[in-house]
Structure formats: structure tokens, C-alpha cells
Specification:
mainly alpha
């Protein structure tokens, strides 16, 4: 189950889901702050494009896999 979730969130084709979440956050942020939604949507879009969540999550997964083997080993 965990591998499927990691595979889904780090898939390059899920960028649309991240853009949809950024748009949803823009609408809620607009309602709360009064800043126009189109401004917040542009900011959210640029953040998603520049941050690239699938790539970062893929790197995090690879890093956890490398360090996961010796996590429970006691060293002196």
C-alpha cells in the first residue's frame, strides 16, 4: 500500500493534481484574505511549476529507501 501511494504522489503525471490543489487553495485564500483569486492562482501555478512536487517527492522516497536499512541498528 505504501509503495502505491509513494508511486502515485511521485508520478510525473500527477502535476495536474498539484495544480488543482493550488487552485483550490487560491480560492480559499482569496475568500479569507480578500486578495483576488486570479493573483493567488498565478502564484500557486508558478510555485507548483518551480517546486516540482513529484520530482522532490521522488528524491525523498529514494533518500528514505537508502537510509531505511540501518534505521533500527544500534551503534556504539
Amino acid at each position: 500500500m505504501t509503495n502505491r501511494v509513494w508511486g502515485f504522489v511521485s508520478n510525473p503525471f500527477t502535476i495536474g493534481i498539484y495544480l488543482a490543489l493550488a487552485t483550490l487553495c487560491a480560492f480559499f485564500g482569496s475568500a479569507a484574505t480578500g486578495i483576488p483569486a486570479y493573483v493567488l492562482m498565478a502564484v500557486g501555478f508558478l510555485l507548483v511549476i518551480f517546486v516540482d512536487p513529484p520530482k522532490r517527492l521522488g528524491k525523498l522516497r529514494a533518500q528514505r529507501r537508502r537510509s531505511g536499512g540501518d534505521r533500527n541498528v544500534y551503534r556504539r
